[in-house]
Amino acid sequence: MWFGPNLQRSYKYMMFASKMPSLRIDQSDLKCKNGCDYFGNPQWQGYCSKCHREQMQRQRKAEKASSATLPKPEQKKQEKGLKLTSHSSFSKFEEKRLRQSETLKKANLLKFSVFKKSNTEDHDHSSEKRPPEFKIPALVNEGMKSEFRARFPQLPAQVDRDARVFVHSFIMDVIKCANVMTVDELSERVQRQYQRFMKHMDTSSHFANVDSDTKELLMDFVEKHAMTYLHELPSVVFSPSGTDDERLDRAMSERIQQLSWVGERHLECKLDRSNAECRTLLYKAISELLGMDSAPGPGGKLARVRRACRHVLRLCSAAPASADDLLPALIFTVLKANPPRLVSNINFVTRFCNAQRLMTGEGGYYFTNLCCAVSFIENLTAESLNMDKKEFDCYMAMPASIGGSSWAAALSLCGAAREAGEQRGAARRLLQHAADLQAAAQQLASNALSFEEQIAKKVQDVLAKTPLEIKPRRELPRLGKLQEISTAPLIDLGTSTDREEPQPQPVPTSQPQPAHTVPVEPKELNVTLDPPEDEPKLNILGFEVIDRQSPSKSPQNLDQTWDLKRTNSLELLTPSPLGFTPFDSRSIDELMTPDDFGNDQLPPGLSNINYDIDLSDFSGDNSIAEDAPKSEPKDPFSPDALKKTQTFDPFAPQTSRGYDAAIDSFDEFSFVDQKHKETDPFEVVHRGQDPFSPVEWNVDLGKDQFRSQSPAKQSTSILDDNDSPTTGCLLPSPLQPQSSGRPN
Amino acid sequence: MTSGPYNYSYIFKYIIIGDMGVGKSCLLHQFTDKKFMADCPHTIGVEFGTRIIEVAGQKIKLQIWDTAGQERFRAVTRSYYRGAAGALMVYDITRRSTYNHLSSWLTDTRNLTNPSTVIFLIGNKSDLDGQRDVTYEEAKQFADENGLMFVEASAKTGQNVEEAFLETAKKIYQSIQDGRLDLNAAESGVQHKPASPGRPLPAPPAARDNCAC
């Protein structure tokens, strides 16, 4: 990689020492070659700036005189002569070649400028022919205005105007010169512009009250706005045409890629890569370096470099930070970052940043370090890494992809990996949740299944046990009585029960009401036949409903014990089927009893006293009896409920046990029924097992033993209770069916 | 304008050069923070130190650039020198090798800085007198031969550190007064803040206009 001499202000030339052959230089050697008393400068071919400028102007005039397409032979000659002192003949030749190519390039660019470039090249023509054509967009002005107000509110408007005028003229000047000057000349011109503005600030009365710090800020402000605009223009100040910057960018990028195997071990910088904080710092530094390319203006780029270097500094915090540590770490960082257009950026800053600031200040310091790092990378050899030459060559021969960007990749990956880890954790938790949910759902399903089976089984059992007893029963005698009663009084009874329906329909008696009244025997017969089918499923409800009704019938029972038994058993059946007339009719019969029945029409076999008590009870019972069929579907033990159990189950998984218990208890009931039914119809009522039923409370209050005793015994005790009219009132509570299972 | 503590008339740029491990950073730290770094927690940005001092009634801001001393970086660290008004050349009195390298450091400094740059030789670690490897006389002779100012100092105790920096500043200021240092040259390493009253600037405005090199 070689550098053309036209890059005189490139970062390489910041260290111009290599050109100086002798140890000591006489004062005279530093003077201008023209013999004027000022100091000369190697960058100006040994002239002082004034003489150099004159020289250049002479050259340019001559150049213009000659044809534009030809390279400038006079200039070549002169420059050759000037540089004889410090360059070998070969380098002169090289220099000449490059010079020529550069000029040719420029000429070509000029030719195509009309098509290719808008502002700059355009203006190149206009600068000679139609000067007023080029205009700086108003955006620049506006941007300056607003930012000036924001940053320097205390400064007079005059200063603002001066700054804007300067920026305007500055930009115009640069654009005008961009295509007739080499980069170095342009750079000089820009630097002179900066100095001009500094001088203006020192001398102008507008700036009399501005202190030096603010002036520096103003300088930066001006530089920023001018350069930000110029930076956007292609090939004017940033990697300008006629320079090798772009090629060098590529070369540098390839070089860094090739050197990707270089690690902190080779550079002897102590980085604790395992440390997360360290990695973070390195990553920050790298991103700052990468951001340098996008920052407009030299100031912004410098700021990026400064921030990057600060991160790097903290990287090598193991030892007290010194330049001994900073530079290797910075080299390492640059190697890992491989910033885009690195050379162009560095050259841009070197050429067009305010030289004063580049030389002093923190930004300048770090930028110098960066230049050192880049130049180290460029000239990196086996010795500079303290390694064997063969090994070095071996590494360098290795395809870049091998040693490759693995580190940078790993670096960026580590951040991504951490994020991924967090996300994975979250995902795992979610999965766990889902699994739990699924398990619970399955549990629910199985519970539901087993529950269903259990229920089915219980029901089967119950069915197997219960149905037999019902068939034999016939209430014929009682029905007969009921019929007689139903004919007239039923209507009134309906009213008495607060039921609206019974009133209008009393006369038809048998059919709508008949359901209630059930006067006709044949129907009843049907009913009695039917129940067996329904019985099994209805048993549960039947029991409870019966419980209510049974007390109501107690008066009748008093009359005829045998009948009572029958009625009870029948009533067990009644609640289940919705449309069964006989049972309903019966209940209606009972309904009739409460008010009218009691006094006016006493059916023959009934005792007055009994009726009085029963009637009151019946009124309540009747209403319940009517309601009962409606409530059936809710009851899990009813036939309807059985069908629905599947849908019903999932929501009540916990209750399954309760139901089991309920079923068990129910069995007991059933047993009780079976056993005692013949003995006493009231046994069915046994709610001794239901702690919440009012009956049981009474029982408990009356006799504590019942609880502990077996249901069979309870039944007897309950029977005792039933004897008393008050208990009969308590029995019919509608809540029983649901609550019955819970206590167990 | 100059009444505030942070106002100053000049900015001088120093560089500190010398082999690795001679204590460049410690000297800098001792001077800017008056601390020895081994004693205090690491602070960010130590290698770029600034401090405002006063010379002949003028407030001067010193900007001190620490440099990497490794041999392999020698070729690339030359840009540090650009525009340095003062160069502090440091060696370790307990390590003779650091003293032997002084001549090459001096060569670089002479070549890379302008003639008016003040070079100050510092023998560091004078607190470790028992392990001395380079005698004071020998170093003094070297300094005299090359026209350098010389002092033995200790970054640990702070002995002579202040003096080294201040003497350098005085010398630079002197050369400004004498007109040997062109303030307007970017490479002079000196920035003048003209806002200060009573500017003792010898540089005539005409010269500035004619030769903005």
Write the layout of secondary structure elements.
The complex is a heterodimer of chains A (744) and B (213).
Chain A: H1 49-65, H2 73-83, H3 89-116, H4 119-128, H5 138-151, H6 157-178, H7 183-203, H8 212-232, H9 245-258, H10 264-267, H11 276-291, H12 297-315, H13 323-337, H14 342-352, H15 355-359, H16 361-378, H17 389-397, H18 400-403, H19 406-465, H20 467-470, H21 476-487, H22 490-496, H23 514-517, H24 521-529, H25 531-559, H26 561-573, H27 581-599, H28 608-631, H29 639-648, H30 655-679, H31 694-702, H32 705-708, H33 711-723, H34 725-730, H35 736-739
Chain B: E1 10-18, H1 24-33, E2 48-55, E3 58-66, E4 86-92, H2 96-100, H3 102-112, E5 118-124, H4 136-145, E6 149-152, H5 161-178, E7 190-192, H6 205-210
Parallel strand pairs in B: 1-3, 1-4, 4-5, 5-6
Antiparallel strand pairs in B: 1-7, 2-3
Short description, anyone?
Chain A is mostly helical. Chain A folds into four domains: 103 residues, no CATH class; 102 residues, Serum Albumin, Chain A, Domain 1 (Orthogonal Bundle), CATH 1.10.246; 145 residues, VPS9 domain (Glutathione S-transferase Yfyf (Class Pi), Chain A, domain 2); 245 residues, no CATH class.
CATH architect. name of chain B: 3-Layer(aba) Sandwich
Share of helix among residues of chain A? 55-70%
**Computed Rg of chain A:** 55 Å
Can you give the helix content of chain B as a percent range?
A: 25-40%
How many structural domains does the protein architecture of chain B include? 1
Total of domains of chain A: 4
